[in-house]
Structures are given as structure tokens and as C-alpha cells.
Design brief:
Strand order of the largest sheet: 4-5-1-2-3-6-7-8
Strand content: 35-45%
Largest sheet: 8 strands, antiparallel
Shape: elongated
Number of strands: 8
Structural class: mainly beta
Number of helices: 3
């Protein structure tokens, strides 16, 4: 038996009164699949999207302390998903990135010490300065297993 769309109905589901389950491919799968039917190797990153200081890059903060983030080239991001609950300001975003994209992991941390630490030879060797801000950069290379991210 054919329905108006021209597809055959499943007789067993129709005769038992059950609704037919839609098993068509997900739109994201259809969007990412190449003509030969292959899907690209990807890595899904979750965080909070922000502007980058660099042209043609986006910044994805790992959490809400904003001390670490990924610098992602715009051409490497192939899918962006808004927060699952837009009414929740703390709801993170998902970005799907090509596994071959070179991204940078950046971690910022503060270094401070009590003034008494700067006595003796240390005081003579280095002038007293305001607390310093350190930035640590890692280039992230995504391995073939999309669930693994190694940092170098």
C-alpha cells in the first residue's frame, strides 16, 4: 500500500495500529556526508563562544571562569549548535570541528606571592612588580580517534 508521498507503508505496523517510526537520516548527517557516503572525522567541543583577537578565528571558553579556551579557525568549524536551553545563560554551546583543523588551547593564570617572599637574594635579584599574568599556549592536534585530543 502506498501513501500520498509515494512510499510504501509497513503493513505490519499499519495492521497492528502502531505508528511508523521515521528512520530517515538525520539532517546533520546528510549535511556532512560527502557524495561517496563518507562522513568527515570530527571532534565536538563544548564551551562558551566568544570573539577572538585574531582574524578568521573564534574562541571557545571551556568553562565560565574564562581562564582557558580554544582558538579555532573559522574554516575548521563545520557545525555550530546553540545552547540546549537558550533561556539558561550558563548553557554551553557545541561546535563540531574537522579533526584535521589546527586549534590552539590557551590557559591563562595569575601568579602572586606575599611580599615577605621577596626578601633577601630574591629581592636583590628581581625588582618588586605587580602580580604577573601568564599565558600558556598549546597547539592541539586531533588524532584519528575523534574522541581523543592530544596537546603538544
Amino acid at each position: 500500500m502506498e501513501n500520498p508521498s509515494g512510499k510504501k507503508k509497513d503493513k505490519s505496523a499499519a495492521s497492528s495500529g502502531e505508528q511508523k517510526v521515521d528512520l530517515s537520516p538525520h539532517p546533520v548527517v546528510q549535511k556532512l556526508m560527502d557524495p561517496s557516503g563518507r562522513l568527515p572525522e570530527v571532534v565536538t567541543l563544548v564551551g562558551y563562544l566568544g570573539p577572538s583577537d585574531r582574524e578568521d578565528f573564534i574562541r571557545l571558553y571551556r568553562d565560565l571562569d574564562f581562564k582557558s579556551y580554544f582558538e579555532i579557525p573559522k574554516e575548521g568549524a563545520i557545525l555550530y549548535r546553540m545552547p540546549s536551553d537558550p533561556s539558561d545563560e550558563a548553557s554551553p554551546t557545541k561546535i563540531v570541528v574537522r579533526a584535521t583543523a589546527r586549534i590552539e588551547y590557551v590557559r591563562v593564570f595569575e601568579h602572586a606571592a606575599e611580599a615577605s617572599f621577596l626578601q633577601g637574594r630574591i629581592k636583590l635579584a628581581a625588582p618588586v612588580a605587580a602580580p604577573r599574568r601568564f599565558v600558556e599556549f598549546h597547539t592541539v592536534i586531533c588524532e584519528h580517534d575523534a574522541s581523543t585530543v592530544s596537546t603538544h
